[in-house]
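Quick entry between incubations.
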Amino acid sequence: MSEPAHHRVDVALGDRAYPVHIGPGVRALLPRLVAATGARRAVVVSARPEGALPPLGVETLWLAARDGEENKHLGAVAGLCERFARFGLTRSDVVVSCGGGTTTDTVGLAAALYHRGTPVIHLPTSLLAQVDASIGGKTGVNLPEGKNLVGAYWQPRAVLCDTDFLATLPARERVNGYGELARCHFIGAPGLAALPLEQQIARSVALKASVVSRDERDQGLRHILNYGHTLGHALERATDYALRHGEAVAIGTVFAGRLAGALGRIPAARVVEHHDVVSSYGLPTRLPAAVDHDALVGYMRRDKKAEGHDLTFVLDGPDGPELVTGVPEALVRAELAAMPRSTAPTAPVTAPEPAPAPAR
Ligand code: GLY
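Done. Structure below.
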């Protein structure tokens, strides 16, 4: 069978290298990728109905995934592992995740832990998961104390970003994905907004693949992928996830620009560019009216990037984005206080949604 025309990006990690296929209909590649693992059995954990994926060609257990931050916890991982064990899955078999970022993160962690590591293939179905979450091997779940605080690096065998899945995305979910695209502007992939959607995904994946292949385990360079995420994760947690990840990262990106400006790292025009790029995607730029600054500072201190108990941000500067430790709390609080506030308690989309980009 001929392959659907599509983009392919390789994540170069030596003997753990893997392809990311991006385009309409690429889910058709799944049986071939499963066969390449040598698996005799598969567990598919899917937020889409069984008919959404082709038959895998091996004995398959189908489990329903529940997308959503409320389902991204250690109990969900334990439940999956128990189902894998009852099915008789071994580490020579394969797990397939199909859903949004919360599904690929949770199922990815279950695969990482089950039998100390079982192959996994991701089929992200949300824009956010296709441009970022499913690529690069970070898996994880939340604790009440903060976002993604428990996890593992576990690279998938392949990722299939089937853009046909995006056709039915609700508008807010699509804009949510734009949050990670907007932050690409400041970390090495400017100008994505003008491209057709499939190319936006491919460029974002290529940027991420190039970063991950040089710094798989967040020793330095990979921190740039968390541009806008220090405040972003805190906002998600402080709003009890009413604010979506991409929306929160968007506000965090605007804040990172303001903070970099206040620290004299970038000129005023570059600060404004942060606001304008985020806003051009129809993403929120204002802090939610109801968030408490003490809570935000508390969550930001628990950020995984933080060294010790200081405040750490990825900030733009004369040499590009980099991790900046020891940012004074007084300055962070002053910039939070100076941020414009949304009238909505948890700041849903504030700017009008742009016309959707053509699919190709
Ligand atoms: N989403 C940030 C990373 O994968 O490192």
